[in-house]
Every structure is written in structure tokens, then in C-alpha cells.
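re: ur question from earlier - yeah i can do the single chain one, its not a big deal. heres the input i used so u can compare w yours
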Amino acid sequence: MGKIERALVSVSDKAGVVEFAAGLSALGIEILSTGGTARLLREHGVKVRDVADATGFPEMLDGRVKTLHPMIHGGILGIRKNTGHQAAARKHGIGWIDLVAVNLYPFEQTAAKPNVPFEELIENIDIGGPAMIRSAAKNFEDVAVIVDPSDYDAALEELRKKDGEISRETRWRLARKAFASTAAYDAAISTTLQKIAGDALPQNLHLTFQKIADLRYGENPHQQAALYRDPRSGGRGIASARQVQGKELSYNNLVDLEAAWRVAQEFAEPVTAIIKHTNPCGIATGATLAESFPRALAVDPVSAFGSVVAFNRPVDGATAEAMAKLFVEAVVAPGYDAAALERFAAKKNLRVLDMSATAGDEYGWQLKSVGGGLLVQTPDTMGAQPENWKCATKRQPTDEERRALAFAWRVVKHVKSNAIVFARDGESVGVGAGQMSRVDSVRIAAMKARELKHDLTGAVVASDAFFPFPDGVEEAARAGATAVVQPGGSVRDSEVIAAADRLGLAMMLTGIRHFRH
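and the output i got, formated as C-alpha cells:
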């Protein structure tokens, strides 16, 4: 590629464009521009030629047609070494355009506005911009294309150092970025319009995610991994958390942090969630976080070693001090006070994530790869609704049991199926996760509780799905449980309920299942 002599600059995002265009002009590069960009550049003293002068046609149809013209696309797409292209350009008076700096109408930002009129949404679908970007990217051997303002400074620096040229390596990198930009733009339009049409799960799924970081490895050292962010997430979720301190996050850290943050968000009152391999090994509420943490730790202090801890309140110094003796891989919370950060700083390897700027309702779909395809589902945002539960047994639960059942139901939603949780009001005391048989999950939860010296007498038990046989309820009663919450729906419900009545248990049916595979 020879020297860049002419550039087309037409941007929706005006950040840095004046300085960039001024830098191009100072290098003797002619600038073509359109509409608002041209006006802005002129206001700042940058010499600009209107695209309309180059095409011989004015901007028309309320700005819908500006650059869709052979004088523009011929100037971008012409192969400089092709003698036929050279001849055609001379015949029709087409001047080469060697650099294209374009970014697109803010469709995604417009779509994110509440109650945005459909007409406004449609008008923010860019046509000319993607066409120029794709043309320039296709012809990257002769044309440099810039779609991201963050690339302006580096491009100017290279032009200055290389006597007005941009290397093939840089043009190739910018072209790949340009095609990624238009692909993401089209995907956002398609997804938004299908959503407007009422397609909760669209017929054609277009996914575009931005790489945030390469990770050291995946679940195991022989696997490669990276973290990507959904650009439509609006800054919500673990992928947008700010790391305050600590070692680089691993793949497994992020999986556990996601699990920990989700379960902590189930509670309105201050809560500590201690997670190991995505399962809660200790969850407890309290009047303060400093009160809830020791209670959560006492549930299973052995498993808590090397865990991930989540809080649903900003962490204070007292809570950080309470954590001082426990080895924790990572902690996540919606903020930290100065005393907490000072205490955590003593543990330099502790990963501390701040979610204060990422709050909001859960966004998007849940995705899981399978061989040759992808499973997609809407997230399980169904919270506990004790007011809608039905008592299936002769005995109603006491007020204390009701509170404990609501707590247990919030926790069991976040335990791997088959899931069983024994709890008291505000505290888990036994967890059985991921067993092939539900009765084994009950036995393991009870066994863990007994090993840790927890008295299950008077505890309640939650099951994420129905009991297929009475044996699970019988085991829970044998361990000391007095009340049960479960979805119901088994063909043997009547046998299970009869067993509960025979054992004096109260049983609430939610009608909602919370499998977590």
C-alpha cells in the first residue's frame, strides 16, 4: 500500500474524531465527510470536502442516502494494482479513498431505551456505514478501515512514523475488527427485531461476545479459555465486575463467583454465601454481614477452605476481619469500605471483585454447548413465593418452620441436582448435592450435618424436585426434620404425603421445580 492521500471520515460516535481528522489533515491527507461529522470538523477548523461534492448528488431522503454511490464505493473497492480497475477509475473520474473511519448509528443504545418508538429504532439501523466498512475491510490490501475511536492515536502514530503509510499487518488487524463490528451490529438488529416480534427464543440465534481477557487455562491446565462479555448486557453480571485486587482470575474462579453471586442475590436480608465447586457449603443470614459470616462458616468450615464467598451488601471492616483466618480464593460483593479493603490488602493473592457498578436484573439467555449445537434457555429468575405454596399434609408448618422453609427453598435452587438442603431459620445446616438418587442426597446432607456436629432435630428440608418415593421423606424425618418443601408432581405424591402425615411432618408444595444440571 502506498501513501494515504484521501480519507473518508463519517462517525456517529464523535469521540476523538476532531483530533484524529486534524492529525490526518496535518499530514496532507484530504478528508471527505458527511452531515454532522463534516460540520463538527469545520467548526474546529479542519478542512473538509463534502461527500456530496465527490458524488455530485446531495444527501437525500432525510440522510438515508449519502454514501451509497459508485464514486464512493469505487474509490474504496478499487484494487490499485489492477490495470482494469485503474482504467475504470480514470474513465469515471473516481478518486481512490485510502482510509475509511466510520462507526455506526447507535442502534443498540437506542434499543436499550425504555419504550423506544419503533420508528426511532428503525431509523437507527445504519445502511451506508456498514457498506463502507465492509468495502474497506474487503479491500484491506489497499485501504485502512477504522471503526473504533481507540485506534485513532495508533493509526496517526504509524502514519507519522511510516511517511503516510499504514502497514499491511495493521490493515489486516483493523479489517478483522471491522468485520467483527458489522457482524455484531447485524446480530443486534436481528435479535432485537425478533424480540419485538415476540420470539423469546429466536429461530436464528446470532451471538456476538467481546473478549475481555485470555485466562491462564480452562477447567484444567491442558484446556484453553477466555472470558467474553455480551455487549448487550449493559454492564451487568460477573463478566463486568471490577477486580479490586488479587491474582488473575481463573476459569474455575469465575464459574464459582457466578454461582456465589447468584445465590446471594436471592436474599433481601444481609447474607453470606460460601461456595465450593458451584455448590453452597455454607449460607446464613444475620442482622449484619459480620454476623452472617461466622454462621455461614460454621455450617461446614472444612469445605469452606479455598472457597469463594459472596455478600449482598457492601463489605465492612468487621466482616473482613471475621474472614481473616479463612483461606478464600475470591470474594464478591457490591462494594467495600476502606477498612475492608485495607484488611483484604494483607492477603495479596485474594481476588476481590466489586459488583457495585453491575447491579440490575439478570440479562439474556443461559447457554450450554453440546456436540454440534447449543442449548439455550431463559434464566431461572423465579424467586421463592411462600404465599403461593400449598400445604399438602394434615399439619400446617409453624411460623418458625415457614421462615426456615422459605430460606431452604432459596438455597436449594442453587445446589446441583439432585439437591437437598437441611436448614433452620436463616442458616443452612446440611447440603446433599448432585447425587443420582434423591434419597442418597438426603442421606449425604444428614451425614455431613452430623459429622459437623449439627443437631438436625427440628430442622426443615427442601428438595429441588419432587420426591419420587416416600423413602426420601422418611430419611429426612429420621434425621430430625419436622417440615418439608418440595415442588410435588410425582405420580406417587399421595404415598409421599401419606408418609409425611404418618411421621408428623408438615409438607408444603411449591408447584415450581429448580433443577440445576
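The chain has a mean pLDDT of 92. not sure if urs matches, ping me
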